[in-house]
Model the fold of this input.
Amino acid sequence: MPKRFDRLPNREKLHDRITRELALTVIGAAERAGTFAFPNENELSQQLGVSRTVVRESMKVLAAKGLIEMRPRAGTHARPRADWNMLDPDLLAWQAQTRPDPRFLWELCEVRLAIEPTASGFAAVRATAEELQAIEDILEEREAVIHTSDKERMVTLDLQFQAAIVEACHNSLFVHLSSIIREPLRAALQHTARSQANLALELESHRKLVEALRRKNPVAAHKAAERAVGLAMLAVEEVLHTLGGASREVPPTVPRTV
Done:
């Protein structure tokens, strides 16, 4: 276990730092398909340079999220990924902070495919004039920065565009689900930096999506959003290719939308 936390954000509280670091240890072990057992509380607190109370409270958080199991005398062990609370926002964010994990990137795409096209269809018949204008304004700004090197701004605008459309569908559950994956998706988009050609195709899909919203055509809006997510899937494939055979870890039944 690391003994220093200089690389972590200064604004992060000690308890949050320790919880995050321990969670990343569990996630890393799961990515390597291995098992992991933590040392006892005394040894772990010495390794981390914190009190036993901090370690104990952090372990309770991880246990509540399904990452670890604590048993008297048996010690503390990482639980299988299938036992994790996958809708927990902290857990989603921690997974996104690790190296590109093929399965996690694919699963984010599949969640997007389940949410965005349907939300776009509803937005086509429910969006207000003010919401449509806000969506168009975001798209206009995205078009203005596509040829710049400001990748962070592009990612932020991409997320804002998606969020604005989901908000315009006026379904509180879709809005909540979309907000849960927003920060993990931000980190994932940083991994899947796309080529200018791919970005141009994505913007074309978004233009068609906005046009469909303006025409109040839910079928066309659904199709345009589905194509945009499909292009994101192609970007994930590029990342998997650079990982050298990692695509074998991805379920083979991902639908093709492009």
About this structure: The beta strands are 37-38, 68-71, 75-78. Confidence is low (pLDDT under 50) at residues 1-11, 250-258. Residues 96 and 188 are 6 Å apart (CA to CA).
